[in-house]
Specification:
279 residues, mainly beta, single chain, three-stranded antiparallel β-sheet
Length: 279
Amino acid sequence: MKNIEGAPEKNYWEKNEVVVTLWGVNGQFTNQPWKQTGPTQAGTLPMQRTELVKQVYGGKEGAATDFFVWKNISMDVYLGQGYDYLMFQVNTAAAGHANDVVAIDDVSLSGKANLTGSPPTLPDPFPTFPDPFPTFPDPAATFPDPAATLSDPSSTLSDPSSTLSDPSSTVPDLDSTILDPATPSAPLMASGDPIVQISFEEAIGRIAKDAAVEDEANDAMLYGGAEWTNEKTGGAVKLNGASDIIRVKGSEGLNQGGPCEQRTVSMWFNADDLSAERE
């Protein structure tokens, strides 16, 4: 970077101020660099951002070492589990004097950070939000009467000598693939070429690649608290049912009016709550 101050030394209020910022961003975003507020949400989909690095050079209180002809600057950054995008931004102020010069050249991200000790603690880019519709016990629920009469211990039991069913009777031979819940009764895709095929095998990042052979890849994007996990068929994505989204961008093959008038969606899923009232 180059930062040359052209104003007279007595005009300290005219000293160049250079602000270097690096943001980690997940999701679709926009940016207005002149406002210096960082990336903001674009559209209706959620966006998370984390300010990873911010360094100020010069300004009214800037030291003499903040002004130089050319200087190599290295800043360590901890990326955690990674981000969809890294946004690098440089802003200047009070650099309007005729002899002022601010220049940036050869920006790169490489190697491992020269960190000592434990990594710095950064805000969670995928916070888990509380359930906005928690389920509470029904105050009008009826509980068993503690004074209820127990069954009569002298009641007549069934006759143990009663005739059991004939063990030699023929039992229908059920298909073992139906009895075994771990075995699918049909392949994931029965026939035809898939428009979208996402296996969730990446295990890192926020993008799940589309493996179908198509002109336009319909990659999926993970938002909120969606996280990678390992399940029966290999990689998978774990959802908390409250703040997670997996979004596949639109394409001609998916949208109505495309080449396919009818569509079939097949997937593996494992639910931890199978009660009837859950949607």
